[in-house]
Design brief:
203 residues, mainly alpha, two-stranded antiparallel sheet, 7 helices
Length: 203
Amino acid sequence: MSLILNTYFSKDINLTGAQINVVASAWLNEYEEDILKKLLGYTLYKALIADLNGTSEPTLQRFKELIDGADLTFTTINGYEVITRWVGLRNKTLLKSLIAYYVYYQYRNEEESFNSGSGQKSGLAENSESVSVVPKLISTWNKMVDWYGKVPTNIAYPEYFLNQNNYRHFNPDASAFNFLLANIDTYPEWVFEPLDTINIFGI
């Protein structure tokens, strides 16, 4: 069972009812698993799934905080103390989730050029011209990465993060990466796979 509901595909990642049915039946489970394995590593991912036990609600406190949020304090690599809140892998109040952003990106990137039934439109005329979906995909991906956790581009490769001694609070963001690192003793199995932001030039 997924950690998120169909209602998370709204607002800035809106899908039509028909699109949501496709995502729910053929995309959500696959890409939710994919992003969680990237974020958590295989061992911690399996521990999370075992704790969920076929539901969407965690039992152990460490997974409750991972999924639904917790207060967060850490010191950045530059020595600045950050006191903030990790909102969790999902925000039940705002109906937002990094999982939803990732699934939306994968679905739109693979299957679609338009959203909202008649397409994503520029609104420039009565019969608006369809506009490129690329800027929307870039925005969606980069929002997901902000939530997931940004690392310097020069070390954004998986091998670097196989060694937990390389992990640092590179920025003050209330990201999943910074939450997990601040609580590394609670999540000792954690192995992070970095994801980089993208732009219209593909760099």
